[in-house]
Write a structure and sequence with these properties.
It is a single chain. By secondary structure, the chain is of the alpha/beta class. It contains twelve helices and twelve strands. The strands form three sheets. An eight-stranded mixed sheet has the order 4-3-2-7-10-11-1-12, sandwiched between helices. It has a two-stranded antiparallel sheet with strand order 5-6. The chain has a two-stranded antiparallel sheet with strand order 8-9. α3 packs across α4. It starts with 6 loop residues before the first helix and ends with a strand.
């Protein structure tokens, strides 16, 4: 099995200037390096306010048309680190025909049932606009795009997904706006836009079990299934999907942990892009660009779970661009 690349290896082997980094040594990267590659645009502001969020959204929303789902993470009841409600309250009214969308969870939680999930959404204040628990009436199957030959050769041996069960109502939306709280994750190392749509759009009873597998094992195979599930969602929406990562309250724990530990990483800002790989990589670069003492805990969580393999495998599946221009707005 190919040894997972750690971020410190990236730092050692190449110049790490924000917005100009190419992931070295990734599956299929040789062919990409042989031809010129335009950089994706990632917009950034340190302004963690509604105004800052609106400025970022205005740069990425061109493809969001028709009926729009806002995929966010509602968190456990009274979750200690969820994003300030006023941010999405200040943005949602500016998104015509929009609905907050979620799916039920697999682990024991009030959000394991639709009734409990709706109550949690109300408890956490998300009932200010239409809400859709997408798997309330079952599943829909999305095909997972075939992996390029290079990705198949480099991936961990074992079963990978050919289709993923998502919430039944997901295909009724014309566009998807992925509003993500970037933070740590107990299995994925970190949760960015990829995790938000991969596990977040998977149905609670079927899709999430497909991704996690029996016994909830950690490691490359789980991460690859998660990426493949995300690839199904991005392929489904095509040009009608856009991403915002809010780098605030960056705990090592996900919002799915009702007792998530207090963040030790400082707040950074808001990122937006129409490229899922570029935005998650830019988020990682900003975290790793912090002084060591301030990034230590979140980096330890990411690397102890092999979380950077998310970026490797997204690159291998050609889900986006690992080279980006960071544009301050």
């Amino acid at each position: 099995m190919k040894k997972l690349v750690k971020r410190r290896t990236f730092l050692k082997n190449g110049a790490i200037a924000l917005g100009t980094v190419a992931i070295a040594g990734l599956p299929g990267a040789g062919a990409a390096a042989a031809r010129p590659q335009a950089k994706s645009r990632v917009f950034f502001t340190k302004d963690l306010s509604v105004d800052g969020l609106l400025r970022i959204y205005s740069r990425i929303n061109e493809g969001l048309t028709g009926r729009i789902g806002i995929k966010l993470h509602s968190g456990e009841p009274h979750g200690p680190n969820i994003l300030p409600l006023e941010l999405i309250q200040g943005l949602q009214p500016r998104i015509p025909n929009s609905t907050i969308v979620e799916c039920n969870v697999l682990y024991p939680s009030p959000r394991q049932t639709t009734a409990g999930h709706l109550e949690t959404l109300k408890t956490n204040g998300f009932d200010f606009c239409p809400i859709d628990v997408m798997d309330a009436e079952g599943d829909a199957l999305l095909p997972v795009p075939a992996a390029p030959a290079a990705a198949r050769a480099a991936s961990t041996p074992g079963a990978h997904l050919t289709e993923v069960a998502v919430g039944k109502s997901l295909p009724t939306y014309d566009s998807l706006f992925v509003y993500t709280h970037f933070k740590g994750h107990t299995m994925g190392g970190f949760g960015g836009s990829l995790k938000n749509i991969a596990i977040g759009c998977a149905s609670g009873r079927v899709g999430k079990r497909q991704i996690h597998g029996d016994g909830w094992p950690r490691g490359p195979l789980f991460l690859e299934r998660m990426v493949e599930a995300g690839n199904a969602v991005t392929a489904h929406f095509g040009a009608h999907i856009a991403y915002i990562n809010v780098l605030k309250n960056i705990s090592v724990d996900c919002d799915c942990d009702a007792h998530g530990v207090k963040p030790t990483c400082p707040d950074i800002g808001i990122l937006g892009s129409t490229d899922i790989l570029a935005i998650d990589k830019a988020s990682i670069d900003l975290v790793y660009g912090l002084p060591e003492a301030r990034r230590h805990d979140i980096v330890e969580r990411i690397e102890s779970r092999g979380g950077l393999h998310q970026l490797e495998y997204m690159k291998a599946l050609r889900m986006g661009n690992d080279q980006y221009e960071l544009i301050r707005v």
